[in-house]
Amino acid sequence: MADRNCRNEHSFKISYLMNSLGFTPQSALSVSKKIHFETFQQPDTDFTHCVDNPVFLEYKNFSEILSRNFLSIAAPNLAVLKEYRANFLVALQALLQISKSAWERKFNVFKQWGWSDEDIVSAFEKYPRFMMFSEHKVTALMNFFINTMGLKSSYIANRLVFLSYRLERRIIPRCSVLRALLSKGLIEKFSVNLMLMYTENEFLQRFVNPYGDPFLLKFI
User: Fold this and answer.
1) What Rg do the C-alpha atoms of the chain give, in angstroms?
2) pTM beyond 0.85
3) Treating both helix axes as pointing N-terminal to C-terminal, what angle do 117-126 and 100-112 enclose, rounded to 10 degrees?
4) If you average pLDDT over residues 145-162, what whole number do you get?
5) pLDDT tens per residue across span 82-120
6) How far is CA 201 from the centre of its chain?
7) Count of beta carbons in the 10 Å neighbourhood of residue 69
8) Domains of the chain: which residue ranges?
């Protein structure tokens, strides 16, 4: 009977993590081994308590950077993350999947571009997905935005979605089109933020089609 109850609880936990919290089967299986629900009727309350507990984070072998800086600075704001369920799930996924060494490498990458520990933690609260990008991708994007486009590192920190765009397919082609338009005096200025947020059709209609210049099409 005890074995059957254990199996039922384990199956329930996996089902709950996948259906209610959006975990993948692999992640649900891993996390289910680390949590325990006092009751099947209110798993949200029990799971939230588990995630809030620093001991749970330490048991998962998170980096010292995370345990010291994230918990001390971001823990008071964890309730805010919970109000935005999608962000909370992404943050939880990042915490569970990123290794200690990877956290340290990612922190160091952003520090090289002038971000403080507090900047990184604040960014994680706002857009946790950015910590799941590879160090190579982040370095390439930051280098282009800062050294090629002349943007400030703080500007990127406040527009973290920039780090989700593809450099070769989206950013470089669009910036090349705008540089061509600037060089010909067809535009005087533009918003990098809007330029990157436009859909493909919106960008063509705004910056390519009105000028009817085949020269611009080679950049798209």
Assistant:
1) 22
2) no
3) 110
4) 91
5) 556 777 788 888 888 888 889 899 999 999 999 998 899
6) 26
7) 18
8) 1-45, 53-164, 167-217
Residue 52 is predicted with a pLDDT of 45
Six-digit token string for 177:
């089109």
- Cα separation, 118 vs 116, in Å, equals 5
| Domain 53-164 class in CATH | mainly alpha
Q: Rounded to an integer, what distance in angstroms lies between the CA atom of residue 147 and that of residue 141?
A: 10
* Integer Cα distance of 60 and 109 in angstroms: 23
128 DSSP 8-state letter: G
The mean predicted confidence, pLDDT, of the chain is 75
Of the ranges 6-15, 20-29, 50-59, 84-93, the best mean pLDDT one: 84-93
Distance CA 78, CA 150 (A): 34
Tokens 């939230």 appear where? 48
Per-position b or e across 37-59, b if 16+ CB within 10 A of its CB: beeeeebeeebeebbeeeeebee
Where would I find the H helices in 60-152? Answer: 64-65, 71-74, 78-83, 85-97, 100-112, 117-126, 135-143
Q: Tokens for 85?
A: 């369920």
Mean pLDDT over residues 183-201, rounded?
A: 86
Distance CA 62, CA 199 (A): 38
Query: Cα angle vertex 191, ends 146, 200, to 5°?
Result: 100
Closest among 99, 44, 55, 54 to 76, alpha carbons compared: 54
